[in-house]
Task: structure prediction
Amino acid sequence: MSETLFDKIIRREIPADIVHEDEHVLGFRDINPQAPVHVLFIPKKPIATLNDLEHADMLLAGRLMKAAADFAKREGFDEAGYRVVMNTNRDGGQSVYHIHLHLLAGRQMTWPPG
Amino acid sequence: MSETLFDKIIRREIPADIVHEDEHVLGFRDINPQAPVHVLFIPKKPIATLNDLEHADMLLAGRLMKAAADFAKREGFDEAGYRVVMNTNRDGGQSVYHIHLHLLAGRQMTWPPG
Result:
């Protein structure tokens, strides 16, 4: 797969407001926030879309969810609540072809989810 | 935690349009669909919210994502695309306190995601 913006963020070649980093996952604020809190959690391993998630990557997908929940606790909005979203391809509205879990919080999220 | 509707669906005590089942995960259509395709993927193990996901449950969270992607492939809308969403507590708009990953497809999803 071709390299994306996110690989450059992982390597600190372009700046980002990083809020979480561990061995497997990086979390940083979305530059076009859609809620008072809007963070992206990405695997350091480049996976283009959720369609490309292999069986061996399932734990990694779960790590994104857990990183989002841990961030919510750390920031104190876990009880108020939040939404996590992942977009795949055109109909999903995927913008960068490196999977990313959106975490949105700080306001009442509405339904449908887009 | 108290039992929810979803436990009854897992035990087949109330009907649901089930589209996926394996050892860990059940997938069934949302009764109030927000897109031409709207399926919920739930762990058979009851976990109330994403806040309650323990470290040992990370793989299970990943299984929900993988089950959604596999369903997209099986149904042939993986390339067109789809969105997955999980809501937590009030601000997220969580309705049933047994975690569920919404899969929405069959139309262009919009931004913001609610």
